[in-house]
Design brief:
- Helices cover 15% and strands 42% of the residues.
- The chain has 252 residues and is mainly β.
- A hairpin with a 5-residue loop joins β1 and β2.
- The longest helix is centred in the first third of the chain and has 14 residues.
Length: 252
C-alpha cells in the first residue's frame, strides 16, 4: 500500500483538533465520528477495515476482524482530496486532552497503543492488533490486554486524555502505571500486568488490583485522564435516576 505523505497542524489547548492538508490524490483515514470539518474538494468514504489490505475480500475480512477484536467499529472513514489543489480536513479529539502526532518512520515503523486512543493517520498506515503474550497481561490486563498496532512509515495521530507525559526509558528502566493511563509505547518496551502486592491496598486503595509495568528501552506516552476514569467520575457525580413508576407528574 502506497503511504500518503500529509502535512498537518494542531489547534487548541484542552480540546484540540488536527487539521490535515492533502495534496490532490492524497488521503487520510480516521475512526468513525472524528471528522470536524472538511473543505469542498474532500470526499468522504466509509470502508471495511483500514484501507491498507491488499488481499481482496479475504484481506478486507481480516482487517474487519482485527478491528472487532480491539473493540472498534467495523468501518473506517477515508478522506480523499479529489480536487486539483490542496484541501484540508480536520479531526477533533473526543474529550479533553492532547493530540499526539507520531511519525512511525522515526519509531521503526510500529507503535502499540490503547484501543481507544487512535484518532487518524495517513492512508497506508495499517491498523492491527497486539495481543499481550504474558499470562498476567492476558488474564488481568483489562484495558491493556488487547491493544492496537499501527504499522507503516507515515504520520499517525493518537489522543491522550488530560495531561500528556512522554518519556524515553533506558534499558532495564521500569515504570509502574495504572493500566488505563498507558496511551502508547514502542514495541521494544516490555509490557506486563502485575498484582499490586498488598491485599489491603487492593481492596481499599481505590487503584484497582493490578497495574501495568513498562520496562525499557523505548519511548512511552502516558495520560493523566483515561476515558474510563472520566466516565466513572461522571457516573458517580450523576444524580440517581428517578423512578418512572409514579409517572412524570409534579412532586407537589
Amino acid at each position: 500500500m502506497t503511504m500518503h505523505v500529509i502535512d498537518y497542524e494542531i489547534f487548541g489547548a484542552e480540546m484540540q483538533y488536527v487539521e490535515i492538508e492533502l495534496d490532490p490524490g492524497e488521503a487520510a483515514i480516521g475512526e468513525a465520528g472524528v471528522m470536524m470539518y472538511m473543505e469542498n474538494g474532500i470526499t468522504m468514504d466509509t470502508i471495511f477495515g483500514d484501507g491498507s489490505q491488499q488481499g481482496g475480500f479475504f484481506g478486507k475480512l481480516m482487517g474487519v476482524g482485527k478491528r472487532l477484536l480491539t473493540g472498534e467499529g467495523l468501518f473506517t472513514t477515508v478522506f480523499q482530496n479529489d480536487g486539483n489543489v490542496k484541501q484540508r480536513v480536520a479531526c477533533a479529539a473526543p474529550y479533553p486532552g492532547k493530540i499526539v502526532p507520531i511519525d512511525l518512520r522515526q519509531l521503526g515503523g510500529t507503535l502499540i497503543c490503547q484501543k481507544d486512543s487512535f484518532l487518524c493517520a495517513a492512508k497506508g498506515v495499517a491498523l492491527g492488533i497486539a495481543l499481550q503474550r504474558r499470562l498476567g497481561a492476558g488474564l488481568f490486563g483489562g484495558e491493556g490486554f488487547i491493544m492496537q498496532k499501527l504499522e507503516g512509515d507515515g504520520m499517525a495521530f493518537v489522543h491522550a486524555g488530560g495531561t500528556l507525559m512522554e518519556r524515553t526509558l533506558a534499558p532495564g528502566e521500569t515504570l509502574r502505571v495504572d493500566t488505563g493511563c498507558v496511551v502508547a509505547f514502542q514495541p521494544t518496551v516490555d509490557f506486563d500486568i502485575q498484582f499490586v502486592g498488598k491485599v489491603k491496598s487492593a481492596i481499599f486503595g481505590g487503584e484497582g488490583l493490578f497495574f501495568a509495568t513498562l520496562q525499557g528501552p523505548g519511548k512511552v506516552w502516558l495520560q493523566s485522564l483515561p476515558l474510563s476514569r472520566l466516565a466513572n467520575r461522571i457516573m458517580l457525580a450523576a444524580p440517581a435516576t428517578r423512578s418512572l413508576a409514579g409517572g412524570g407528574g409534579n412532586d407537589d
